[in-house]
Amino acid sequence: MKLKTSMVFKAIRIFFGIFMILVYLGMAYLLYINFFEWTTEPWLTGRYVFAAILALYGIYRCYRQIKGIDYYRLRDLEERNS
Fold it and tell me: 10 Cβ partners below 8 Å, 6+ apart?
């Protein structure tokens, strides 16, 4: 039963990680193409800066997802229990 619960937990974490990557990259794209129509001067520069930050963080999250870096806590917990 314990193995089944940890597998479900891993699946939820993987799904949530992929979902958040899509959210970050999607918001970066929407800001870049000016989907929200922010045309006043303070928003013009900030829009590009925020889009770049979201895109870089989305790429970083993707790297962590592929490498499995986010799951160190699960591995530590499994090592302690065995």
Answer: 71, 74
